[in-house]
Amino acid sequence: MAVDIRAERKRLFTDFLDNSDESVDGKGYREHVEAMIQEDGSRLLVDLADLRAFDEDLQRKLRKNPVEYMDAFEDALTEVVHSIDAKYIKEGDRVHVGFEGQFGAHRVSPRELLSEYLSSMVQVEGIVTKCSLVRPKVVKSVHYADVTKQFTSREYRDITSNSGAPTGSSYPTRDNDGNLLTTEYGLSVYADHQTLAIQEMPERAPPGQLPRSVDVIIENDLVDTCKPGDRVQITGIYKAIPTRSQGNHGGTFRTVLVANGVKTMTRDQSGLELLGDDLKEIKSIAKRKDLFDLLADSLAPSIFGHQSIKKA
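The chain above was modelled as a monomer; its predicted structure follows.
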């Protein structure tokens, strides 16, 4: 039954990719997939407004329960990419789906990430305060038994996975018959993994209160897309992680945001917008011979004098 539901969700997203005539930028998503292939990318960004126009109920369910849809969506995208260029991705590899656009009530700050948003898709804006090193995370390990001359493999899942419960992280040392196994690190599959800390923007924090922060997990092509000090807009799934030390006694959990889209906010997005008249005025002022004196007079005009200090 679960397979039928996943196949239906996969069919819906395939229909969206094939039949969405135009996205917000005037192109169909089939063209976006082709452009992604030409740019050697591995993630397709989907605007929620386009998904809402195609199927409003699907868009609403995706925001509420993204874990149930992400794997089916990535299966559909991988199949479409394979139909366009069969050699673009290797056997067993996948391309990823990210989301952007207007999230409505699901666009929140780290302070507003409360329990009601757990397991749902949210969009968070903030300042990157900390970045870890990019480290490899094992996805599939391959092992060789000298006695039987056979290879065995094992797949691993953690909190970032959308399918199945998390598995252990230790490599198997023996097979089912008790034969010693040797790990073939060169044949194993790894994914890039990085963690960030995103802090609430100071201008949006309530007066007199410290900014709140949230931990973010990014993987694969999203790693190293931002650095400390950057203002970012991150889309992802808000998840709770039980800690080992709590066992069955603690009632609180650590929460993280598992990202599927990272967008750096430039100065143009958060700064002033200069119109044509403003540019003309700036150019006319630049031609004045007393420009240096004018700039000094305009600096801290409420403080009289101190021209040399202001010019410095």
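DSSP finds nine helices and eleven strands in the chain.
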